[in-house]
């Protein structure tokens, strides 16, 4: 099975003969990559994500590859005849879990996002923020190979936004490809493997990050491990800067959203690394002034 998702000369019209929303799109999404899509409103970002998620079919060109895909839309339908837990349990069984396993997984994810108290609330009675948590959980519950997030952080409280960033870091470290759109330029700042800008119905790769994104929050971990040794497992992907100020002492810097992955990798290595200190770095003067 081809796990890369490829868009080759893809275009999408409004209707059968309407104007082109997107045209001439070439994009490859390999496993384990994190891709940000940006651009002004109305340029076709959501249309591109729907094509990636196979929600829409292209008017021209070809979409190939068959990764197991989950999608969080910009607007999630809430008028469903289920409670939050009932809806998620049903989806879990669709994805092949037994009903008890689906219920357990749904409750675990709802708890991670602070939505466990609303597990048995009818979907139609959920607030915007709570329904958005269900939208996110239904996508993560599928354990997808490709996760497509269209403004998925909108409506979430600060704790849930941070939890979604951690979940994205966990999924990409585990080999899931993630493609996302978010209006906040600080979202996952400094982390994406590639950023594409939609403009004039096309897609441009942005090779440099603007200063405001470079100022995203980071965490520095000082750990003791083998002198000159290779970082274990998922730590290699998470680290953005590393130095060895003394033999066997390593200073490792990661985006804040990836700190849990780094610590887990260090502590579960064989033999385990010794974590000396963990320090949150300031986000930078420009970022702080906008908060």
UniProtKB/TrEMBL annotation:
Domain ABC transporter: 5-225
Organism placement in taxonomy: Bacteria, Bacillati, Actinomycetota, Actinomycetes, Kitasatosporales
Gene source species: Streptomyces lanatus
Residues making up the signal peptide according to the UniProt record: none
Single GO molecular function: ATP binding
Transmembrane intervals: none
Matches recorded under InterPro entries: AAA+_ATPase, ABC_transporter-like_ATP-bd, ABC_Transporter_VariousFunc, P-loop_NTPase
Keywords: ATP-binding, Nucleotide-binding, Transport
Protein name per UniProt: ATP-binding cassette domain-containing protein
Gene3D superfamilies per UniProt: P-loop containing nucleotide triphosphate hydrolases
Keyword Secreted: no
Source taxon at top rank: Bacteria
SUPFAM superfamilies according to UniProt: P-loop containing nucleoside triphosphate hydrolases (SSF52540)
């Amino acid at each position: 099975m081809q796990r890369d998702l490829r868009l080759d000369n893809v275009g999408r019209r409004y209707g059968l003969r309407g104007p082109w929303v997107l045209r001439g799109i070439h994009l490859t999404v390999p496993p384990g990559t994190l891709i940000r899509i940006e651009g002004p409103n109305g340029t076709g970002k959501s249309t591109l994500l729907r094509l990636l998620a196979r929600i829409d079919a292209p008017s021209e060109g070809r979409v190939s590859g068959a990764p197991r895909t989950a999608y969080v839309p910009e607007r999630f339908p809430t008028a469903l005849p289920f409670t939050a837990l009932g809806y998620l349990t049903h989806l879990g069984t669709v994805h092949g879990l037994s009903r008890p396993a689906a219920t357990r997984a749904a409750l675990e994810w709802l708890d991670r996002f602070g939505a466990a108290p609303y597990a048995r609330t009818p979907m139609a009675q959920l607030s915007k923020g709570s329904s958005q948590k269900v939208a996110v959980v239904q996508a993560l519950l599928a354990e997808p190979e490709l996760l497509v997030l269209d403004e998925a952080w909108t409506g979430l409280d600060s704790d849930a936004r941070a939890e979604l960033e951690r979940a994205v870091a966990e999924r990409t470290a585990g080999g899931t490809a993630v493609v996302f759109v978010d209006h906040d330029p600080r979202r996952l700042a400094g982390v994406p493997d590639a950023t594409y800008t939609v403009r004039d119905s096309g897609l441009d790769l942005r090779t440099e990050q603007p200063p405001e994104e470079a100022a995203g929050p980071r965490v520095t971990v000082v750990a003791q491990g083998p002198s000159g040794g290779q970082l274990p497992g998922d730590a290699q992907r998470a680290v953005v800067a590393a130095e060895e100020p003394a033999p066997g002492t390593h200073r490792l810097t990661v985006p804040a959203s990836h700190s849990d992955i780094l610590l887990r990798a260090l502590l579960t290595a064989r033999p385990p690394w010794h974590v000396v200190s963990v320090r949150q770095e300031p986000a930078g003067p420009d970022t702080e002034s906008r908060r």
